[in-house]
Amino acid sequence: MENPWALNYRTIDTSSRIKANSAIPAGFVVSKSEKLNKRKANIDQQQKDQNDIQKLKVKRAYEKAFNSVKGIFMNVIMMFMSGNSINQFTIIIVGMLLSNPIKALRQTNEVFKEFENENGDNSFLLKPKLTYIALSVAQLLVGLYKCASLGILPTTTSDWLTFEEPKTFLESVHGGTTF
């Protein structure tokens, strides 16, 4: 079911404004030069209306692109609060940090489908889409940083080679309890 409060940009009819302003009173005779000027004015008004609609679509597309970044700060706070130990809560947060941007990247075209033109010229959506993709990749990098801080990313040679021994530390420091 379609949301009754959502605005569908494809159904905006700009011709009704032009027809309402172009009513000629009965008995009024219009010269050929006035008709020509009026046609030019109507064409200019239609082009202006199309440009205004295009600008509105671009503005709304950027708003849609930046909606995905609103949750990144909450994710960073949750990441900080979960700590660096591996437990259920941390794994759930890491799963969310990695899965949400991947879902967002897969749904890029569906997110911007409402702003597309019927004539197929959607080049104006390139920058908002690239912004959306860049912000989703930034969220994915936050999740990968959390994986690296937990030590679950394979970044050393001992993670990849079975004959390589993990690095042993010469010293270790523990809490203030003495045994």
UniProtKB/TrEMBL annotation:
Similarity field: Belongs to the EMC4 family.
Q: Where is this gene product found? A: Endoplasmic reticulum membrane
Q: Which PANTHER family match?
A: ER MEMBRANE PROTEIN COMPLEX SUBUNIT 4
Pfam families per record: EMC4
Q: Which residues cross the membrane?
A: 72-98
Q: Which residue windows are coiled coil?
A: none
* The entry's keywords: Endoplasmic reticulum, Membrane, Transmembrane, Transmembrane helix
Protein's name according to its UniProt entry: ER membrane protein complex subunit 4
Give the organism the record lists: Neocallimastix californiae
Superkingdom, taxonomy of origin:
Eukaryota
Its Gene Ontology cellular component terms are: endoplasmic reticulum membrane
